Amino acid sequence: MKSFTPEQALQLQGSGARLIDVRSIEERRSGYAEGSTNLSIDEIAVDPSSLGEPNESALIFICQKDPRSKRAADIAENAGFKDVSYVVGGSEAWKSAGLPWTVEDTFFERYARHLSLSEVGVEGQRKLQGATIAMLGAGGLGSPIAYYLAAAGIGRLKIIDHDTIDRTNLQRQILHTDARVGELKVESARQTLLALNPDIEVEAINDKLTGENVDAFIGDADLVIDGADNFAARHLINDACHRLHKPWVYAALQQFDGHVSVFDLRDPDADLPCYRCLFPEAPDASFAPNCSEAGVLGVLPGLVGMIQATEAVKWILGIGEPLVGQLLQVDALRMNFRKLRLRKDPQCPQCGERSKR
Ligand SMILES: [Zn+2]
User: What is the mean pLDDT of residues 250-278?
Assistant: First the structure.
């Protein structure tokens, strides 16, 4: 098998050879040899015919250093390609030789429809890009939330979930695929989200949220979103957000109905309610069955999660009126949306006078 220096590869490219970068899309974000096309080693290994017809043109493979490009050349040779080679030293050598190097800045293209909104614009989009959102759950609510936050360009998404994908999840948990049943939800979420928007950072944490790790999880977040839909998690998040002065977006589901609110706990002395003002203690589990026990219309978490995502994007941009001090009730069967006022409870065990004594 032949190999070339980056300089030789550049020359051959000029005379019609195809330069194929076999790194992942994420790796290409930091730049790539000019004129190279992308086909990851995994894609080539699974389907060598993705390289096209044998002997249409010479193929030169390039990766980060060179082991993967060598392997790609091997696969191509076995698939009947005659003129194959790889670049010694890969993209690193190409770049340090000072050869033409492309770094794609997709910012203006990707967010064009945001940039033309005067309420967002470049400044707002940069705010989204600079934001960190901590999300609990990569399930029914987490799917639409994470999808739209990734699409909107939230720069850093932290997602915690300790579950694996079950086929019964797929009726609503659209981040995942049938082929990934049995795999970790956070890892599946990360793959899906980076495929949609490789310009963001997704921190996938395969763990259960507990009293021990909650502070570290939300400590550096600008906003927290609960997509777990259970009382224990909501109390955990509420109390930690109150302690660390964080805003959080709440939702709850039941069969055909949903609730959404935003608890702004940045100022503990503000006259604003927290979640415990509403539900001081978790009710008996038999009064609050979860989705797996009571069932849920599959599109409902989609509808409610997207309201949470909308509140999150508004919050980071600082536009509109957040659902602070209000409880939005969604009745999907009648398609009724109703807002109730929420008030701070002076007797609240978390934020009330009683808690300060
Ligand atoms: Zn309270």
Answer: 95
